[in-house]
Amino acid sequence: MSIFSPSERTFIQRQRVGRFATADQAGQPHIVPVCYACDGAALYIALDTKPKRVEPQRLKRVRNLLANPQVALLVDHYSDDWSELTFVLIRGTAELVPPETAEHRVAIELLRDRYPQYREMPIQEQPVIAIRPTAVTAWGAPAE
């Protein structure tokens, strides 16, 4: 069952990047741009192989969600025509989905279908971040 309205889901599918917000145990916020895929019930974020200073499982976003699984994903559209400004804010809980599970395989397929760059990366070797939405706030005209 999807928490998203049809117009929210269409908007989320049309956008290419979101801003993933986590907080550590002390409540210190951390936000990064991410690529994502949505199946209507969950959103998935790959731990990809783009250059990083640490191993994927040592990333701040991963350490934060393990300490505090309450997260948010902001998907937005900016335009100089402010009548077109739109966002969908998804709040929920996050977890790492381990490789070799059915959900992981589905997530990898969704991510590779959405982002051709992932077809050449061994993203199947790393866990995937799954966001389980608990609340959605939309503003603007998400269907347009």
Helix share, percent:
10-25%
Which class best fits the helix and strand makeup? alpha+beta
Question: Largest beta sheet: what is the strand line-up?
Answer: 2-1-5-6-7-4-3
Shape: globular
**Beta-strand percentage range:** 25-35%
What is the radius of gyration? 15 Å
Largest sheet: 7 strands, antiparallel
Secondary-structure element order, as H and E?
Answer: HEEEEHEEHE
From the coordinates shown, what is the CATH architecture?
Roll
Write the layout of secondary structure elements.
Layout: H1 6-14, E1 18-23, E2 29-34, E3 37-38, E4 43-46, H2 60-67, E5 70-77, E6 86-97, H3 102-114, E7 128-139
Antiparallel strand pairs: 1-2, 1-5, 3-4, 4-7, 5-6, 6-7
Descriptive account of the structure:
There is one protein chain. With 144 residues, the protein is of the alpha+beta class. The chain has one domain (6-139): Roll (Pnp Oxidase, Chain A). The chain is 21% helix and 35% strand. The protein has three helices and seven strands, in the order αββββαββαβ. Strands 2-1-5-6-7-4-3 form a seven-stranded antiparallel sheet. The protein is globular and about 40 Å long.
Using brief descriptors, characterize the structure shown.
144 residues, alpha+beta, Pnp Oxidase, Chain A, 7 strands, 21% helix, 35% strand
Provide a concise account of the structure shown.
Helices cover 21% and strands 35% of the residues. It contains three helices and seven strands, in the order H-E-E-E-E-H-E-E-H-E. A seven-stranded antiparallel β-sheet has the order 2-1-5-6-7-4-3.
